[in-house]
From TrEMBL:
It comes from Mycolicibacterium brisbanense. This is ABC transporter extracellular solute binding protein. The keyword Signal applies. Its main location: other. It comes from the Bacteria. CDD domains: PBP2_NikA_DppA_OppA_like_15. Keywords: Signal, Transport. One of its GO terms (biological process) is peptide transport. Residues 75-442 form the Solute-binding protein family domain.
Amino acid sequence: MTAVALVAGLALSGCGGSGQTSSNGGGTPVSGGSIVYGADREPLCLDPHNNGDMPQTYVARQFLDSLVSERRDGTVVPWLADSWTVSPDGLTYTFKIKQGVKFHDGEPLDAAAVKANFDQMLDPATQSLTDAGYLKPYYQSSRAVDPATFEIKLSKPYSALLPVLSQAFFGIESPKAMARGLGVNCQSPVGTGPFKVKEWVHGQSVELDRNPDYNSAPADAKHQGPAYLDHVSWKFLEDGSVRFAAVQGQGADLIFNPPPQQNAALKNDPNLTLQEFTHTGQPNGFALNTTRAPFTDTAVRQAFIHGANAEAAVKSAYLGVFNWEHGPLSSTTPFVDDSLGDFYKHDPDQANHLLDSAGWTQRDGDGFRTKDGKQLTATVVYSSDPGDTPPADVTLYQDIQAAEKEIGFNLVLKPIPQDQYYAAFTDPNAYDALAGAYWNSPTPLVLSIVYSTDSLKLAPGNNMSWVQNPAIDGPLHEVAASNEPEQQQHLYDTVQKVVAENAYFLGLYPQTTRLVSKKRLKDVWIEPSEGEPVLHDAWLAP
């Protein structure tokens, strides 16, 4: 078992050095210049309160600030909140809001503005699976005590609240801009951040201009004051080979996630630098729908996992770039239990035994198992959008499909349009298994979002295996209220073992931010709550 030295009840204050690592540091920063960032996906909406997907949070980090920031060592430091206190019962958080900060539209930041943001995040009309998933089980109310004091009241203790609020999903927006309506705000959210949205050219780019009045950098930034860069063109380059060619040539200065086939070229190019960050949270994998046959049967789910040969498939498809991540928490997540590998290992003999015992004893002419005249078949759905599902993922799924056939399991791969894929999250009848079922999170309490009954009731679409299990719910309720590392480890171990024993999830590989930059681009860093690239400190060497 691995007890990472990070307590979910993180530090309540902090200051000093950044605790961050960055690309190509060193030298004296100079102001000016523009860069092109090559993104792998276009957001559905620029407002990260709406919907809540990773392409939103990556770009939103450039124009929104959050109440707090998380450092690599897990401590939480001031940002738009200068300080905060927590009541002894853990139910009241009181934040002192930084004074003298203005939104890009000239409106002042105050406690009332912060409250308006929380109201929007939790409004069902906002359709935020992410914000609602994190907050609804715990949130009771909030209020502006006075212009400089914002208060959150919880219905029950939530030890992960501070790191959760560090994410760009909880970035603070101008209430005046939000009042324009969700549709307009999706196009041009207004924050307090180092850059502001100039224009979103759909299908091409988001253009970001420097905010010359920026005075609200987090305590862990490398510098205070405005950004060094004048402009960032956030271009959508979904094809990985196109992205890599762009940064090799003159088409980009920084790109997200080069394809694994370019590893050798990347290592041999003296003009490029690679920066990597492995996300905490649930790794990428298949969520097995426990409400639809054949995965209503625990033995069938267990057999499916033992038959997948996932470790070999990940190694082959990603050419050794990623290690296999089998369980519901990635290996970098605090309180991960690394002793559960036997529940996920490739074991075709055990898989065959489980299927025999479950009554799938006959074979049809294609070699697939049958029971009562029905073929053992499951359909896994995934997005047909290459930004969601890159070619290496498709290869990975095909390798798993071939391995499952060896035990007589017919795994059908079904690509569907992106809008249908996201809609499937909230429809238990839309899939037998869901690919791409990851959850990047700064806290192991992501297990509550992904596996608790509360999540099913309060934020449908996050519990993608449609699990309702008291053996999970009880420990998760306890750990949310705990700040004791030993107790937390025991409770998280309990939940992870229940997930493993019941075979709710087939882990594949860790969500990873891999940034490739030209060497003259200095001081790009990756923040740890969501692995978001931070360009506030970035500058171009002459």
